[in-house]
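To assess whether the prediction recovers the assembly geometry, we first specified each molecular entity separately, as shown.
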Amino acid sequence: MGYTAAVAGASGYVGGELLRLLLAHPDIEVGALTAGGNAGTRLGQHHPHLVPLADRVLAETTPETLSGHDIVFLALPHGQSAALAARLDEDTLVVDCGADFRLTDAAAWKRFYGSDHAGTWPYGLPELPGARGALARTRRIAVPGCYPTCGTLALLPALAEELVEPEAVVVAASGTSGAGKAAKPHLIASEVMGSASVYGVGGAHRHNPEFTQNLSAVAGVPVRVSFTPVLVPMPRGILATCSAPLRPGVDADAARAAYLRHYDAEPFVHLLPGGSWPTTAMTLGANTAIVQVTVDDAAGRLVAVAAIDNLTKGTAGGAIQSANIALGLPETTGLPMTGVAP
Amino acid sequence: MGYTAAVAGASGYVGGELLRLLLAHPDIEVGALTAGGNAGTRLGQHHPHLVPLADRVLAETTPETLSGHDIVFLALPHGQSAALAARLDEDTLVVDCGADFRLTDAAAWKRFYGSDHAGTWPYGLPELPGARGALARTRRIAVPGCYPTCGTLALLPALAEELVEPEAVVVAASGTSGAGKAAKPHLIASEVMGSASVYGVGGAHRHNPEFTQNLSAVAGVPVRVSFTPVLVPMPRGILATCSAPLRPGVDADAARAAYLRHYDAEPFVHLLPGGSWPTTAMTLGANTAIVQVTVDDAAGRLVAVAAIDNLTKGTAGGAIQSANIALGLPETTGLPMTGVAP
Amino acid sequence: MGYTAAVAGASGYVGGELLRLLLAHPDIEVGALTAGGNAGTRLGQHHPHLVPLADRVLAETTPETLSGHDIVFLALPHGQSAALAARLDEDTLVVDCGADFRLTDAAAWKRFYGSDHAGTWPYGLPELPGARGALARTRRIAVPGCYPTCGTLALLPALAEELVEPEAVVVAASGTSGAGKAAKPHLIASEVMGSASVYGVGGAHRHNPEFTQNLSAVAGVPVRVSFTPVLVPMPRGILATCSAPLRPGVDADAARAAYLRHYDAEPFVHLLPGGSWPTTAMTLGANTAIVQVTVDDAAGRLVAVAAIDNLTKGTAGGAIQSANIALGLPETTGLPMTGVAP
Amino acid sequence: MGYTAAVAGASGYVGGELLRLLLAHPDIEVGALTAGGNAGTRLGQHHPHLVPLADRVLAETTPETLSGHDIVFLALPHGQSAALAARLDEDTLVVDCGADFRLTDAAAWKRFYGSDHAGTWPYGLPELPGARGALARTRRIAVPGCYPTCGTLALLPALAEELVEPEAVVVAASGTSGAGKAAKPHLIASEVMGSASVYGVGGAHRHNPEFTQNLSAVAGVPVRVSFTPVLVPMPRGILATCSAPLRPGVDADAARAAYLRHYDAEPFVHLLPGGSWPTTAMTLGANTAIVQVTVDDAAGRLVAVAAIDNLTKGTAGGAIQSANIALGLPETTGLPMTGVAP
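The predicted structure of the complete assembly is given in tokenized form:
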């Protein structure tokens, strides 16, 4: 137990997933648990599945309650991390699960989030080229959005090796936990069960600029991305169906070879054997991304599919993976490689 | 009750949906109910929700049991309709819910279905240009596939009015009933609930040539289509997210205007008010297609989304809609305009 | 179209289901649609599945907006019906889908609802002995609760024919729409999907006194009832598993014979063939109750199971069934006998 | 890694769950994986969520492939364990997840399973009085059925402390994975999603004699049990709603005190704070049972509810818990105390 970690926003879904994973982490001990409106309540009220922490009472989220830890995980609504982080010790490892420090483009931030840009922190997707080096040297980490994590891992080898033109279509089916715990009319069970729906269509979703940023960085040229999220009746999981126009001469074997090269050594990215395709059930509760690729000659497109658990690899697990790197621990420490199925 | 209808394949999902709708049809009386392996059993065993027909016993599917009706609906595995239809009276209206007579391209049929092409019947998607005329004069109707119905209705105005380049990406989330009633390991509830998955990726699904046929007919030029079906945990419904590269100068208003022009008079296609997006729940049990369209300027694509119930507008309802036309009845006769929600 | 009907509370789930059914009713025309907080909005915003009424604007719920109709259906939170009903014409048929006028026992009302008892109207469960006569003569109808409808139909013949001792255990699995459309934290999809839960345990649910009232009326002696509702991940449907101690000499054949006698002529209660058991899917969208009974000799109990759609037979359909009786129409007019499955 | 374990029946759900848990067990190493019809295939084909074992090939289930391990877990269809176990070394710890050795009453076995009784092994529910002692001394363990595990833990303190009469009603909602992986028509997703159903009604389910055996052992007198399983649309989880007639003078406080006494020191049984009730989501993937109790004075019954994950505490986790005891390891070794929610 070398390190202690505070979790701000412990009563939400991301906070709960961080705690579930930290309870199994051999080198990190759970410290302060804080919340906003839920301060003063028992954790067991919000996360009865976390039996060992059920009687812990949530403190208020303040710089004081969070101080004195080696690591602070922020699981807050966007816009709240900057002020808090500014008052945390520079030596504290601050891992922001929100959006505030993900984007490098201040104008894009303003356009999609409406407020002034808080800045940019090293981006916590270790599988991106160069990311591990930056994460190893930082005390501040911006955890990626769940959709960009999934879609970027699906398309990374294709764009990095120039198998496709720099334009992508991503349609991603997602479970409901990505929308958080707030009770909104369109998210009540009666509306969701038995129904699939789209939202943020036509480039309106806030993960759009993050997609553009990631895929362009991988490709080395600007990539145009059409991204549509689809809400489907399951609590967890994202399945991203991604495609892009094939460059001449690229066939299925070349595509597969590129994906194997890129992902063979990645501990949390698993390329399925040929002919098998990802399902979100394969990843439930695990920090894995399951990937497959093929080409559609008639349509002239490469098609890649990735599945993740939006709360694990998509947020809390990815956060701990990056924290492991920043702490100098083995990257896989304490992170589940297996899902819970069926 | 001007007409009588036999239903071949009455124990399957399409057969059951045909019967549900026919029970509410004022001008068609349910006649013979036939089946293959389930011949001799009570209908109530297979469709306990069809209480008024629960005690009807299924006859064997033969030309003899089907003869003597004004209409014969065939809800059979593909490859079985041709031989049967050949032995039915030429004056009988034969409506094939299977794939056998949908494609005009014999080579495409052979490639995707493996057998020799049986022929081509008038295609039962009344919303396609020219379709109503052909349906009014025929005694043989090929009911479209559920995915092509949904995707074609999503993209029809965009391609017909040349708002987009002739290449489309369709990613369609579907409920499980489209896979039929056969018990296959990947379709058992434990595997499906809580999970999203893809199949037929890379142009492998049999509905690919039908997509190409429909969209090319609408566009007047060959259209390349990348189609990926996504299985999501719900019994019914298809939500097709479709996009295509915008032609210069096309904006959201122009797109919407085109869709309004095409669909304003269509009884079963409902363009939502701006800002609202389709959900499959809106269509459950109804013969409606719910559509919305926008443009993504940053990505340079038009994005259109359509929702249908795969068993109703996607198969059995569409079949009856086309049959109404062929019989000279008002097209909407007996078909539900409202879904069952939540 | 002999009659017009107003629907108060049209934006909720019961209001929506009333409208879905009224649109298919040959003798009732939809009149005013009213709401509380949602007054002034389009119906299509709340019930996009009701395409033909999508552009109707909701009026405010007042005696004035509701007046001038032959029938007024009230689908309001409990406690709001009495004041409104007092100001509606005595000749207007007022059908209250809420709880206000269900109970005969003022003390029980006070204990479970906390307010003063508003009174008692004829109880709209036509299958109860004597109910049809009372309904035929009234202009005021109290629609039963969904759980009591289901559980009462399950146990009615057993208690009426004294097959069992007057004490019953009812455990009823329910979909989420019974909880209405209000966004509450424990009803969001992420919490409900993949989970079963109990509530109102130990006699705390408000339907308890209604159970006692119904079952005691049937038995002719006071019946003790232990009722536990179980929330399960589906939008609609109630499956009530009911049992009671067998009286000496009662076997499965006797039980079945009693159920057949009671339900053979009931248009909306369907006793399954021996060996088949109800599922809620059999009733989705239908006004049917599906019932089965057996005895457990080892446990010394009769076990009866009933399934209904909580919004149809359980509320809106039952309301129209009773209204049909009060209007002198055939009881089955306009009510679906078939469910939507799968 | 003191011990090695073979898993027979590795391709099924219980086998998969055993492997998921064993991968996280610090003292047990996964040895041979065997199967029946699936011998020769990759484990990844059956359990793609078990990424670290994906490329292991299944051997055939024989005494030879299973020999040479410290522990053999049998996850086989009932009736297959006896012959196999007879040929395994007496010093090998054999843990049978099937039903073969659970019952002490040979006649009950014959009546419910149809074959001759194979014998009785120490019963692997450590929370039963006296169970831990027997398990500590044995090399043969019969893992309880999932329903009896859940219902017994719900009622144990009430019967042990004579709070209730010796007759119980258990209605247990279950996810589908308890039915295993075989593709049966009523278990396909289209049939299950959106529907609740009963089966094995009237004392017909094979877990009935096991309920009687457990509850009678706890009570010290014969207990009559009425048990009804309810299938609900979720992959995992059992929620047992249990009740029994109160003895005179027992109130809610006395009931709670008894439950606290019994469960305070149990590592895997968690009594919720007063007013909170179990949900299956609290237990998903965990080896915990979540319990609550109250009394219904009007009905004169004690009502207790327990939730478990049928595959974890209900089978594979319970199996490892008992194995830990038999091996002399701390009982909680390697077993998850936290669920995966939402």
